[in-house]
Amino acid sequence: MENNGPDKGKDQQAFAKPKDGKEVDVGGVGRSLSRKTRKTSVTSGALREIGGVVKRRLSSFGLGNVEIAFQTNPDEIEKLNENRGQKEVLKELGGIDAMLEKLCVKGEAGIPHDPLNTKTRQNMFGSNVYKEKPPKSLWSLITDEFEDQVLQLLMFAALISTVLGVAVEEQREEGAYIDGIAIWCAVVLVSMVGATNNYQKEKQFRNINQQRDAIDVTVLRSGKEMTVPSYQIVVGDIMLVDTGDKLVADGLLVLGNDLIIDESSLTGESEPMLKDRAKDPFVWTGTQVSEGSGKFLVTAVGERSEWGKTMAMIVGENEETPLQEKLGELAILIGKIGTVVAAACFIVLVASHFSKNSGFGVADINHILEFFIFAITIIVVAVPEGLPLAVTISLAYSMMKMMKDNNFVRVLEACETMGGATTICSDKTGTLTENKMTVIKCWMSGVLNEVVPKGDQIDPMLKDILADGISINSKAHLLLKEDQETIQFIGNRTECALLVMLRNWGMEYKPIRKTADVVKLFQFTSERKMSSVVVKKASGKLMLFSKGAAEILLRKSVSSLGANNEVVPLDDEQRKKFEDLIDSLASNGLRTLCMCYREVAESEDLELVERDLIVAGIVGIKDPLRKETSDAVAQCKNAGITVRMVTGDNLKTAKHIGAECGIFFGDGICLEGQDFRNMSEEELIPMLPKLQVLARSSPSDKLILVRLLKKQGEVVAVTGDGTNDAPALKESNVGLSMGKTGTEVAKEASDIVILDDNFSSIVKSVLWGRSIFRNIRKFLQFQVTINLVALALSFVAVISQKGMPLTVLQLLWVNLIMDSMAALALATEQPTQDLLDDKPHGRDEPLVSNTMKYHIIVQGIYQLIVLLFILFALQDMHDLAPQYELPVKCTLPLNEVVSPSAYSDFTNFCAGQDDWNARCTSLNENYGSHLISMCRITEPKEKELKVPEYTVLKSIFDHQKDEYDKEHEKRERQLYSFLFNTFIFMQVFNEINARKIANEYNVFEGFFDSPIFSCVLVFTIVIQVIIMETVIADFFELRSLCWEEWVGSLGIGLASLPIGLATKVVLKGIEGKKKATKVQPV
């Protein structure tokens, strides 16, 4: 929730880039040193022996010597912090002032801003970092891959096959062990690719988490306030905190202004605790400032803090995102189908084998193992473990890219959810506008000035009143950079605009603020929309200075300061003039701020002094609209996303800005927060579709709006920057906090941090969210197609007695292509602007759309028809493909080969020799009446022949049978090689088809914008060529292809593209007809 006051975030918060100021530059040196030095340790006994004086020498680093006379040690401080703080121990140590002295800290100046001093304190008391769960090594990730039970079963079967192939001489001679070894190699390769993908993903997540945990904090060093990263905080630092800040160290309160801290994250207590130097001075890491401000002495950091001790006991695992869970369920379903097909194939193969072969031997065991391995491999291929992997890769890749688009993702799920957002409730200041506040109009001394007057044109008394109110009733700072011209705003931008106005009058706020005797401070809150301060003047008088929303303070005022410093009572006429003035300024898009004062009597209750005010001045502050905001809002409208503006500005200002950026238009409704919260749910729900602007709203209004929208089934994204925005950020589907101006509480409650506070960056997060969903769909369409085709082909081939058309190694290569490689290729596709032309995908939208189903069915049928044609029909087309013609079996009666001449003729013939045709023709002439087809004798029977004749004829028969089988296998393997190559290239080109799943005609659009996709595609093709045309082919049981076969494979694969295009044309035609046939109004 945006606000107009001090709890509006700080430039020096987390995710801010390094500042140009000198202080921060020096702080950077400390950070670099901390990476180069080693931590040393000193026992408490040694500390006591030297009287608590600890010397730390850094001469080994070439940095000289540093000596700090600490009068305490880590053990003593740990005892102080035990059980959430020991006041008795603190009293024994002499109290807070004594602790400052013991830690060598000057209360007004803090510690020296010296990297050597900082390093010495880190060596003594520890650094402000925490031990992380050690990252898994690549080797451990590889071993994790082998924990898959299906893969283990496959490896076990391959091991038995290898052992039998080596141990049995007959199997060894035939090289039966090669298959087992090759399967092992393939399994290792697949596992290594999967592990490497996981390793890169974990590395990316770790880098992102490190950036998430680093925040910038304000400390007092060498008498100056400066910003340093949280990991540079050391024991002894004086840390400054304000509303919304997250505490990054344990400490003791030195000074507090109504400091209330939420300790629920540490203690579990829901009630915030008021911190008091005397009663409860202990503050803890991980807690957050709910209200007020203060300074505290850091006493423990990192693992020595209470938070660090707790974190050391926690080991967290990342939970799956909803999309990963949904895909995991789909993978299980497909896996079950694959298991059924695998079991059926195994049963059919075993039954077929024993129907053709009698007896049982070692060879039969090997065959059964081969069938078993084939069945297990089908399961490996069928189980699409690449689906969850694709989500992980896509999320990791998108998170890194989103960082470049100023979207820091804190919660993985938000990446997905943002793509389905149907409404965005956005703040105005800094998100829709530039947050560059400038006072351009003002009312003073009874006159509206169209241009802010110069300092010498303002009455001295009025100028002093305004200067005191602006300087003291503010926490903002102006930082003059090294060029002495550029001013950097630190803190609330509205307050900074007032400080600049004061500076232009020739007055400096720092001396006024430093010498002010503040008696009472009233913090700004989004509910109050004002802040006040009671100051004791040098004369002893108490003065109240208030500033805030003009209409709010006008209600609390009873008079105004007119010309010649005359106090004019506010009658109805005067009040109406002021209301018209405020409306006039607001109607021009100006933020109106009223500054009031009055003298306070000593007898008054200081809790009730914000009344009876005197209006000293009213200013109109311009915050120009970001130049890209209007286009970004228009993009959201086009994408089916409703943008609502929720702002603290008054109704007129909100309407003006809303209309300027395109949020408020047509018959839209603009409500004030007070009216909104007073309406019932029944009254509000009918108004929600037209509600576009909520003005003068509070954080509770935003929370109510979010809940109502979610009840209507909306997917709600909400922006917020203030502490009080946390409930709405948590309640929303996606919480978007501001990186520059957001408080730490808001960031902790959010899912995504918008680093540049720009609404156009929110649109980019929508784009990336939709890209993730579409990329997963691309992968899903590709994988389901290849899964169904592989399963159907294997099943049909087996039940039709064609054996195994794809071997185990071939199936493992297919598995590698469609899982790890395809996940990498399709899940990292860059988002395209056309994604914003689609409507948001709803909560219950299925993963597989109707369009995807049609493409899966058409491509699957095409691939299956082609593969079955090759398998069943191509061998019979002798003219087209003579190389696949199988040798024909024939029978030659035994009585025709017993003569020496016939025996000689027969033994000279072997199936597969070059003169095969001639020999067969000769034998046909001699024995034509007895030949069925090709020359082969019938198997001799021992009972019908004498021993010598049987022995000779049996050897002839076995020899001829072996030669025939070799020739048959050669021709069949050539056919299966062509089938395998064609199958792979159909997947390659279908992978290109899968790049566009929304019926886009041009599948090559943006092809070279996705280098990972291109590289994966080239890698797949290169490896396929190597497999087919090198010695590796023997391991895959493949034969080299001729150029005609290569052209055929490529051509058939390429045909997937026009088939995909034709499918899109037909689907678009059907869709057009459906639209045309819709009933038109009469």
UniProtKB/TrEMBL annotation:
Residues 1-40 are annotated as: Disordered. The keyword Transmembrane helix applies. One of its GO terms (molecular function) is ATP binding. GO terms for cellular component: endomembrane system; plasma membrane. The chain crosses the membrane at residues 150-168, 180-199, 330-351, 371-397, 779-800, 856-874, 1006-1027, 1047-1067. PROSITE patterns: ATPASE_E1_E2 (PS00154). It comes from the Eukaryota. The keyword ATP-binding applies. Residues 804-1065 form the Cation-transporting P-type ATPase C-terminal domain. It is an enzyme of class 7 (translocase). It is found in: Endomembrane system; Membrane. It is a multi-pass membrane protein. It catalyses: Ca(2+)(in) + ATP + H2O = Ca(2+)(out) + ADP + phosphate + H(+). Its main location: membrane. Catalyzes the hydrolysis of ATP coupled with the transport of calcium. Belongs to the cation transport ATPase (P-type) (TC 3.A.3) family. Type IIB subfamily. PANTHER family: CALCIUM-TRANSPORTING ATPASE, CATION TRANSPORTING ATPASE. This is Calcium-transporting ATPase. It comes from Chloropicon roscoffensis. The lineage of its organism: Eukaryota, Viridiplantae, Chlorophyta, Chloropicophyceae, Chloropicales.
